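--- STAGE predict ---
source: upstream dedup step, 1 unique chain passed
mode: sequence only
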Amino acid sequence: MRPLFILFFLLLASLGLLGQSTDFYQHHTFTKADTLRGSLRPERTCYDVHYYGLQLKVDTRKKMIRGEVEIAFTAVTDFQRLQIDLFENMTIDRILLGKQELSFTREYNAVFVDFPTVQQAGSTGSFTVHYYGKPTIASNAPWDGGFVWSEDKRGRDWIAVACEGDGASLWWPNKDHLSDEPDSMLISLTVPSDLMAVANGNLREVEEDDKYTRYDWFVSYPIDNYNVTLNIGHYTHSSDEYYAADGDTLALDYYVIDYNEDRAQEHFQQVHSVLACYEKYLDKYPFWEDGFALVETPYLGMEHQSAIAYGNQYMRGYLGGMIPRDMNWDYIIVHETGHEYFGNSIGVADLAEMWVQESFTTYLEAVYVEYTMSYEDAIRYLVKQKLYIYNQEPIIGPAGVNWEDWGGSDHYFKGAWVLHTLRNAIGDDEKWWAIFKGFYQKHSLSLVSTQDFIDYVNEATGEDWQSFFQQYLHYPQPPVLEYKLAQQGKKLQVNYRWAADAEGFNMPILLGNQEKMIRVTPNTTKWQETTLFNTTAADFTVAVDRFLVKTKEIE
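--- STAGE serialize ---
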């Protein structure tokens, strides 16, 4: 359950206040299935989920699941029909309101449930969905969602799931929209007794019989549906503790395949420095009572809340690469732990704005480098990420649809560079870190919009950054700094202006020579001029290591 103001926010999105970039997508065709999955129609906005109780039995031999989900809700408006979601390859046995069976119809992956009487606004209730089937199998988890039916290196069952983007409804019935998270959730998993099942939150109870064992996990914080997970394998459990600056103790739990226990205990020691870094720049770990866990998976990784999927094979970087050779940290630990803050604690209500989750988390990688090494090393790390910026589509996508064709990498790497650029455009690190921490702390455990961040930056700086975000988030290309150079003895006359799509774009930037850079504020309407002393045209440079811009010399 999230605050109901989010419905107003999404109405604004539908009116285009978030969607200036929708012009980019005006020639794209969105299907009814896209809209049913991605939009907030009356059958979704009429109720607010505050609890899910998922009980699931996993048949590892048939690659099949059977279970039931209790959905407890509050009626937001009067309604007699609501929408839940479950992929159409999964079968619903029945839906019960107490002992009364409810009628339902299906359209694509949407399920419309009819109640016998009108549910009055403000009332509470619950219904239970009984279902079964063979869930979608991921062909390339975590980028392609679904179940992973794998084996460990000893040939034993090893099962996991990843469903970001595709949606949690590929394996359990729920209101599958980012705008509505339950306040708490039970995840009860019954698996063959030679296996262990690990999910989110805290393990409350284990009940064994001859052939099967049930593991009851409980999440006590709001959680995105796509973050709900299961992991099944020959796990061994080890624990550690992290001590916060205020002396509070956080439980660290590690679930790894049994033959990796010793290796994991040594490798996971870096969790302490990651948590310390994020505590310094943001706050204490946000899901304190549920603890922090890494769970070994047969795929690379995923930010499953309080049960991070870890599959980086105990290597530095990203499977041994992607970070500079002199750096020695695990990309999955750093990145996915960052998602506990941006993505899991602070979330967004529409896939179109996933940059808030992915860009801030990607930027946290550079923050970690700065924390453990230096700012210059962080810049070096960010410069390496430029290789993955493509400028082919806006960072903000089309709102109100669950569109599989949208989702390049610019809302990761380019978005991180937008934050790096903003830091340098503000030009005051004390103010920047106050913004970075203050925005997080103000909005932790809640949903935000892009405009929330813009408003926060504007208020903190006393300046208007709307055109900055308009350019970087709603247009594919970064701004171009056009300049003319004229040598006058030992002086270099520089004329400059911005070529940008956003009206009124006037971001400050640094230019000059390697010995001395000066701060100027070009605009898009006229040429401006400055003079650099003891500088030649050959020495002239623009700080493209601190600003995501293109440059063009005008002859």
